[in-house]
Amino acid sequence: MTTPNPLRLARKFARYSAALVGAVGMASMSFLPASAQDMPELSLKFGHPYNEAHPLSRGAQKFADIVKEKSGGKITVTVYPNSTIGSSRDLVESLQIGGVVDFALVPTTNVASFYAPLDIFYLPFIFRDREHAYAVADGPVGKKLYEDMLKKTGIRTLAMYESGFRTITTRNTKVEKPDDMKGVKFRVVNNPLNVATFKALGANPTPMALSEVFTGLQQGTIDGQDNPVGNVKAFGFDKVQKFITLSNHQWAGIMFLADDKMWQKQPEAVQKLFQDAALDTQAWERETLNEEEAKYLSEMEAGGMTVTRLTPEQTKAFQAAMKKVWDEYRGKLGSELISSVVETK
């Protein structure tokens, strides 16, 4: 009997082991989506001003989770809530500069400081209801605005989340008619349109970053503020405010923005992943917000907050008082843009 050559056996074993390892590697790769195999290694930052419990914050985290999963773990998006890497204005400035933050959630009214036509979203009472706001934000009017904004600012819009229709909260004054706002020290978003809106009601508008509002209300620097129900609850404003009026004077669209310099560096598969994930989470965030808003309102009412629901006649009184804002901004925004929004079905 021929004795096996130990060297030959070792070589055969080595070839077999290499083939086995290769087969196992190929098998494990087959479990990844085809596009994930070609994804680059990326570590990105996503900033926003919202509390972790808010649907907006959860939507941002959901986006990060989807991107990580679909990229096979190669692309990591770290979410920074609560203005931890900058206020809304800071985030927009960072996106313009490039290389500081990659994604951000910012209200249209803050972005309007950099691209004025976005003020159209905050013209008081321009939207009939949520469906009208969605039709504008997602349709031809919105897309045209986002394309023009990209050309002029270098900031890309991937989606439009929302925080809902804005309400009025106050410490001591039950607001049922425009005259109730006279002399009230009132926090507004730092945007001339928001200042004009509450000056029209006779209030004393005080621009202030969202992250500073709770302390301002608590210390009496301001007596009231306007925010959607979800923000009032998430930021604890109901703990330092006694009254809330469901005025619905403005719809708060929250822009899902991206640094276009970062975007342009990515292969088409990565761009598609980001765009698809942004739109998927847009749908989830809107649905979740609307479901939870009624719950938040019930909790605040049970906690002692007085809720005022305006009648159609009372709403008309607020609309009439804010007509001067339309007159002022018709020249700034253009009658054509305003008509295109009003006429959107």
From TrEMBL:
Listed name of the protein: Putative 2,3-diketo-L-gulonate-binding periplasmic protein YiaO
Family under the similarity heading: Belongs to the bacterial solute-binding protein 7 family.
Entry-linked Pfam families: DctP
Main location: other
CC annotations in GO: outer membrane-bounded periplasmic space
Signal peptide from the UniProt entry: 1-36
GO biological process, one term: transmembrane transport
Top-level taxon of origin: Bacteria
Keyword vocabulary terms for this entry: Signal, Transport
Subcellular locations according to the entry: Cell envelope
InterPro entries: DctP_fam, TRAP_DctP, TRAP_DctP_sf
